[in-house]
Design goal:
Largest sheet: 9 strands, antiparallel
Number of strands: 25
Strand content: 35-45%
Protein name: Regulatory protein YycH domain-containing protein
Distance between the termini: 97 Å
Structural class: alpha+beta
Number of helices: 8
Pfam families: YycH
């Protein structure tokens, strides 16, 4: 009899334990199940690929100076661009000295000397540049952000001179100990001798003949609102708000995700995160931004770090520019527009912590068959187009890019010349 009572008691205890475990795991007071079924859970790892930081660190273009105001320009992913950049990444740069940038006539050097020039957009922190190039650590130089690198040789001095330009625009750093010879520079400059000739005018380069780009239409998909929610919030505590302009806001009381369906665009903010104080620098912040994108949506294409600076030491914007293309013609940036946001991933940081994140919900599924080669104007025809902008502002930079438009057939990428103005505006040439 005693054994029978013991057995019944043991069974009851086991049953009670199983019931208790069920409520602990599957239910919380006043909420839905915490453990989601396969149909309810959105797998965010398939939204985009993860990238290493060095895959995002490369020049926007490489200009070859041939003397007598003859130049040519190579764009990312083109054969000679890859060849020049891979060789320079293996060279050593050391012995830095700082000079005021206005002490030297740089236009004269670019026009008369044989050399190479790498452009890094709005600025790349030296600590990031050290990840892809052999730049010796130097306290004089390490806190800087670099907009361009100029390498040239002169027959009179019989030496190679290497200058790193600060993105602030006031100083330049010379690497007095560079692992480069005059023969190295001339050999790499020779890659441009039989390429399209460019002329340096007013600080930017104009091709003397048309250049070719590929016009294409991409098949696209769209990240769902549920997918984007799942990477930021616990659905069981998320509130939904619909704005008058049609945008949707999801919040957990601290963070918010604004989804603009009409623009296929999201804006995530976490203002309280700024209260967490930590070490920050432009380089470390850019690396934090890369990690954040890897964990929250991933990368849907080829990107380049285009901006990693801010108004002060505590606040910073990190922006990644999307590129399209490869092979013979190279890869070119896709221009973000106020009327159609696409082509950039932007993050805001404060005290080293992510407080804002913006990106498109559109992603590419690959090309359609209707590709064609387009010739962009060069020479005097391009000069006439540029003249139309002369009344607005000084042109700081001129470059080919893709203008995206979304239609029933997919995302069309149309080649265009783009002018970056000194007042910060960007203009697409007609």
């Amino acid at each position: 009899m005693k054994e029978k009572i013991k057995s019944i008691t043991l069974v009851l205890l086991v049953v009670c334990s199983l019931v208790q475990s069920y409520f602990l795991i599957y239910r919380l007071p006043g909420s839905n199940p915490v453990v989601k079924t396969a149909n309810e859970y959105i797998k965010t790892e398939n939204m985009g690929t993860e990238l290493e930081a060095d895959e995002l660190l490369y020049p926007s273009q490489i200009t070859v100076h041939l003397g007598d105001n003859r130049h040519t320009v190579f764009y990312p992913e083109s054969t000679f661009y890859n060849l020049i950049y891979s060789r320079l990444k293996g060279r050593q740069f050391d012995g830095f000295q700082r000079y005021p940038v206005n002490n030297i006539n740089w236009s004269e050097i670019r026009s008369e000397q044989i050399g190479l020039e790498l452009e890094f957009g709005k600025g790349m922190p030296v600590e990031l540049l050290q990840k892809v190039m052999q730049i010796t650590k130097d306290p004089l130089f390490e806190g800087e952000s670099i907009s361009r690198l100029l390498i040239y040789s002169t027959d009179t001095e019989e030496q190679v001179r290497v200058f790193f330009f600060s993105s602030r625009g006031d100083v330049v750093y010379e690497a007095t100990k560079a692992d480069l010879t005059m023969q190295d520079v001339k050999q790499q400059a020779d890659f441009g001798k039989d390429w399209i000739s460019y002329t340096l005018e007013k600080g930017y380069y104009i091709p003397e003949q048309s250049i070719e780009m590929v016009e294409t239409t991409l098949r696209t998909g769209l990240f769902s609102t549920e997918q984007m929610q799942s990477i930021f919030f616990d659905p069981s505590i998320t509130r939904y708000i619909r704005e008058k302009d049609g945008s949707e806001i999801y919040t957990d009381g601290r963070r918010s995700l604004q989804v603009r369906q009409s623009r296929n665009w999201i804006n995530y903010t976490d203002p309280v995160a700024a209260a967490v104080t930590g070490e920050s620098s432009p380089g470390r912040n850019a690396l934090s931004a890369v990690d954040f994108v890897n964990q929250h949506g991933g990368w849907n294409g080829k990107y380049r770090l285009d901006q990693s600076e801010g108004p002060n030491a505590e606040s910073q914007t990190v922006m990644f520019q999307q590129y399209y293309g490869s092979g013979q013609y190279g890869a070119f940036p896709i221009i973000d527009q106020s009327t159609f946001h696409y082509g950039v991933i932007s993050l805001e940081l404060r005290q080293g912590t992510i407080t804002g994140y913006e990106r498109s919900l559109i992603y590419s599924l690959g090309e359609k068959a209707d590709k064609q080669v387009i010739k962009l104007a060069g020479g005097d025809e391009l000069r006439r187009k540029i003249e139309l902008l002369s009344h607005e502002s000084v042109i700081k930079r001129l470059y080919p890019a893709y203008l995206p438009t979304l239609g029933e057939n997919g995302l069309k990428l149309t080649p265009m010349w783009v002018a970056e103005l000194q007042n910060g505006a960007t203009r697409i040439l007609p």
